[in-house]
Amino acid sequence: METLQITPVMAQKRSLNFGEYAEDATLVMEEQPTREKRPLFIEANTIEASLEHLRNDCIIPVFAKDNEATLSHVAFIETVQDAARTFFQGEQIELPDIRVSHVIKGRIPEAIHKPANQLLESDKTIYYERCAFVIQVPTIYETVNGNRLTLTIGGVRAYNHTNLYSKKTAERFKVFIGFTCKVCTNLCVSTDGYLSCLEVTNTNELYRAILELFNRYDPAKHIHLMQTLGNSYLTEHQFCQLLGRMRLYQSLPQSLQKAIPRMLLTDSQINNVAKSYIQDENFSSLGNDLSMWKFYNLLTGSNKSSYIDSFLDRAYNATELVTGINAALHGDERYQWFLS
Q1: Model pTM?
Q2: Nearest residue to 88 via CA among 210, 225, 226
């Protein structure tokens, strides 16, 4: 395994204890937080947003029966930022890359009787039902199968997962820590690095839960898992067989689906996997055996077309699927249906 680069920017730093998988660290000079221009980490039906826009231009939804405010997207993102700065003290933490969707439009009370074509900008209110963001930690990275992976933290908030028509209750969030493949910004999400249904009532609970997630996550184990994917290959025949089974899966009766490990990608995303197998500039393999690492990136690349509320679930499922099929190539029975 190649050297895992841990580059602290302060003299006093927390040891990440990567154990047997890591070697010597490399020191670099301090840099200010930035967010470099890069390919989108999610594409479908989203627009870019800044913290300033969310803070200054958007209202905060409330619970209808008691008028209690929800935790805003800004509070969510800043709580994750604070937890990352605490846990990874001494590392460079980039500014968040934020994508939002499903804008909810309204108007101030004074403009309630105005025709829509006469509304001023000051008469309008908006908020976004769904928000996703990632924060990269560029001083913690590793090269896996020729691709640089950067430690990445992020989350998803979708108000449609919370009942806003009731009194204030626990609110749902999704939080992850994993790695981003630099050449394509595909997210690699593992079992111990994902909270799919984090329910909290305030930012203190949210902060503690995020720190606990960071503490549980084993980045060296995650890196090792992804490195092993480069050692297994699908023949073109196996890949075509696998694509056919993935398409068939969506049409199976529920009773049969329950007997097979879950597969969350849609038909259009499976079609994108097929196209990328031929056309992707980084992971195409037409006419050659396909490494499981490349197959993994074909899956995570197609997931970028997911809506925000299903994005992280499918990213995690891509990890489940590729590790299961990799095990099936070596004799494990659980995922053999996809290859048979």
Answers
A1: 0.87
A2: 210
